[in-house]
Every structure is written in structure tokens, then in C-alpha cells.
Amino acid sequence: MRNLTYSSWPFKEDDEWPDYIFDTTGWVSHSIAPTTKFCYLTVLEGWQWGRVKADQFPDGFDDFFPAWLQSLLGNVVTVNSIRKKIEMTADSGDDLAKFYWYGRLIDIFMNFEPIEIDDDALDMAEDDNWQRGDDDDERRRLRAMPNPTF
Q: What is the residue extent of each domain of the chain?
């Protein structure tokens, strides 16, 4: 009798109202309470995920979006494979496997790490010297190049 759904309540006689009240109590206890718990836990885990990502990406969207995009592009083959598996399980009617592959897909979209930037790769000392004109070899090379004629 748990989780019994009625489109309308049948007509009750005066002596049957206690059953009606008991059925409503059972419905609230066994259907609404677990649903509310799962909804609350989903919101709580979403908030915790947001806090973890906020700690990982202190500069906000400027760090978050490139890392998410890099992760997504790095997993293109995996995402395409999962998409095919979801189609196969949907055609076969295997809902449990389909939910598993949807969970894997969500995991790929949601779990990613910040981009590690190598500070040495951003060192522009050589370019700075060229822009200031300190590099005599580069100037000689540029002078030796023929002028283009149009």
C-alpha cells in the first residue's frame, strides 16, 4: 500500500475516514519525506561542490571557464563514446546502465582541475630585448633581408 497514487479519492463512508487519514499519513511518510531528503541532499552537495570550485578557482570565471573547456575538449572521444553507449542502452531498455552512463557524463562535465600555468613559459625576456633594440644580431639579420617590391 505504500506509494499508492490515486487520481481521486474514492467516496468514503463516515466509518472509513480513519483509513483515509492513515493512507494520507503513510503517503506523506513514505513518499514525500524521502523525496524531500534527496532534494535537500542534492542542494547541499551542489553547494559543497560550488565551494570546492570557488577555492580551486579564486579568480572566478576567468580561471574556471578555460579549465572546464580544456577538460571538456580533452574528453571529446570519451564523451562521444558515452553518447553511443547511452543510445545503445536506451534502445535495449536497460535503464540502470543508461543511468550509469549519464552519471559518467555528468562526472566528466563537473569534475575538472585548474590549469597549471608554467611561469617559465611566460617569460618574455628575449622578446623584450628585441623590442628595445638590444639584440644586434636580430637587427643585422633584418637589415640583410631584401626589401619587397610590389
A: 16-56, 59-115
With b meaning 16 or more CB within 10 Å and e meaning fewer, what string describes 100-136? ebeebbeebeeebeeeeeeeeeeeeeeeeeeeeeebe
| Predicted confidence (pLDDT) per residue in 45-99, tens digit | 999 999 999 999 888 888 889 999 999 999 989 999 999 999 999 999 999 999 9
Instruction: Centre a 10 Å sphere on the Cβ of residue 23 and count the other Cβ atoms it contains.
Output: 15
pTM confidence score:
0.52
Assess contact for 108 and 78: CB atoms under 8 A. yes
Query: 20 and 9 in contact (C-beta within 8 Å)?
Result: yes
3-state secondary structure string, 83-108?
HHHHHHHHHHCCHHHHHHHHHHHHHH
